[in-house]
Write a structure and sequence with these properties.
The complex is a heterodimer of chains A (about 140) and B (about 180).
Chain A lengths: L3 H16 L5 H8 L5 H23 L19 H17 L3 H10 L4 H18 L6
Helix pairs in contact in A: 2-4, 5-6
Chain B lengths: L1 H4 L4 H17 L8 H9 L17 H20 L10 H10 L11 H4 L4 H21 L3 H10 L3 H25 L1
Helix pairs in contact in B: 8-9
Chain lengths: ~140, ~180
């Protein structure tokens, strides 16, 4: 039961991203050519919803489902890791048209070539873990 | 049924994605999909050799369950909630795609030229793309969900840097590299 709620949240996430076509290679291509507002609208509305929600959580000092105070951690300070990592990620995102969420969603939907993308992503994650300490952050 | 099978409006889906993030916060968790890649690496036992993977991935099991749910959601949406009018692109985009030799969607989510193609060139491209996503998201400490949605919603400057980076990389790929590749 404890884990079922995560399955349901994930299920909703998978349906929404597929039905709004955020998992579509075409939509990502269109976004990076500024030929549609669709993807910008999705991301913008999600952030707006999130900003309002988080402000509400913080101002009301809401508690989580277990009654613990909700703590939202700040991201670590840094520069190079965000710029370099971000640019590498963006290159991959626009090439295969899927970020990590959609990779899994598309695989579940039966697009088996996406397994190669997942394989690459695991190799990339693995290599980062291996050489992390040699990289500028 | 048509309001379900048609392309969902950005305002509705954007709102729901924001709510998914907020619900996970209420559950005491953080919305971030690329962490699962690290969990999957750690599950192989890589932590015995690489400290980065030497952490208790079982604490992240909930996130793998979210992924499992998302995969089921994707399956249901593609197989049962599909509509031939899906993925209606800007006509200009379709013209550009033709110049690259990529077919128009006609209701499909993904181009066959990339995702229904077993030529070695395409498979290598998919692996390289995945590699950049996996390496880049861990280097930057998050992906679209962790930085663009979770981070920006919490007004985090590091996330803004990462998201600007996502767009710099994406623009370079979409405008300069894709025409060279295809």
């Amino acid at each position: 039961m404890k884990l079922l709620k995560y399955l349901l949240v994930g299920f909703l996430f998978g349906i929404v991203l597929t039905k709004t076509e955020a998992v579509s290679w075409y939509r990502i291509y269109e976004m990076f050519h500024f030929q549609s507002f669709h993807m910008f609208g999705i991301i913008g509305t999600a952030i707006l919803t999130g900003v309002i929600g988080i402000q509400f959580i913080k101002s009301k000092k809401l508690k989580d489902i277990d009654g613990q105070p909700i703590e939202i951690l700040d991201k670590e300070d840094g520069n190079l890791r965000y710029w370099f990592g971000g640019i590498l990620f963006g290159l991959g995102w626009a090439l295969v048209g899927a970020c990590p969420g959609p990779i899994f969603i598309l695989l579940g939907a039966g697009f088996y070539n996406v397994a190669f993308v997942l394989l690459g992503a695991l190799i990339g994650t693995f290599l980062y873990g291996l050489i992390k300490d040699k990289l500028p952050h | 049924m048509e309001f379900i099978t048609q392309t969902w409006h950005w305002s509705i889906s954007g709102f729901l994605i924001g709510m998914v993030m907020l619900v996970l916060i209420y559950f005491g968790k953080t919305f971030g999909m690329s962490s699962n890649l690290r969990s999957l690496c750690a599950m192989t036992g890589a932590g015995r050799f690489i400290p980065f993977f030497d952490w208790d991935w079982k604490e992240q099991r909930w996130n793998l369950i979210v992924v499992l749910g998302a995969m089921i959601g994707g399956f249901i949406a593609v197989h049962f909630l599909h509509n031939a009018t899906n993925v209606t692109l800007n006509p200009k985009t379709i013209e550009q795609l033709k110049l690259l030799g990529l077919e128009e969607p006609n209701g499909k989510l993904l181009p066959n030229a990339l995702f229904n193609n077993s030529s070695p060139k395409i498979i290598i491209l998919l692996i390289i793309g995945g590699f950049l996503i996996g390496f880049g998201s861990r280097y930057a400490g998050g992906c679209t969900s962790g930085h663009a949605i979770s981070g920006l919603s919490n007004l985090q400057v590091p996330s803004l840097k990462a998201v600007i980076g996502f767009f710099i990389g994406g623009l370079i790929m979409a405008h300069f590299l894709l025409p060279l590749i295809f």
